[in-house]
Amino acid sequence: MFLKVADIAVAVGVPEKTVLTWIKQQGLPAHMQNDRYQVNRVDLLEWATNQGITIPPDVFGNDVESQQPSSISEALNQGGIHYELPGESPESALKEVIARMKLPPSLDPEFLLQTLLAREALGSTALGNGIAIPHVRNPIVGQMHESAISLCFLKNPIDFDAVDGKPVTILFTLITPNVKTHLHLLAKLAFLLHDQSFQALLHRPGSASEIMAAIRALEDTVIRR
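The structure assignment produced for this chain is given below.
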């Protein structure tokens, strides 16, 4: 689950000194082992997503389990696309998101809400430009059998403490059954959201069929799942 500075540099296409600058000056979480920095993959992905730095999804695919993780389109089909979601705060909006998700009986909605809020307390999941990706810090291991991404368009813009100061109107909420799938899908989603035409479709917003078609096209041509 850990990457060396050299591994990150090669994957992202930057010099090792740039990665060291990220660690020493820009808040990329890391720890020392044998006098070398080690970076947790979850920490790298979350930090890079918040910084607007693209991490190729295959960085997180080296140890994928025998059953391939869901694609974004499959997970979104499971979680659904919802419009005019009510809410006046991150907590009330996330409560509405959870109410629309197909959760297994063993997963308490209030527990999931508190877990999502705890992750927000560590640092905003808002990417900027009105988009946030609320997700748990660690997957809900053993309780989810399928990955789910819920896309919700908010009725009212909400302050998620985004780095660009813009309120959030679009939520991609992600829950997964294991760490590997969590990394895989979060990386793909962050990569996909760097596509400007896709962002424009979301801000219009497009219909559910338009959004699903755009995601499948990007998966086939850009992400190449």
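Interim note for the steering committee: Confidence is low (pLDDT under 50) at residues 62-68. The beta strands are 2-4, 31-33, 36-40, 81-85, 126-128, 131-132, 148-158, 168-175.
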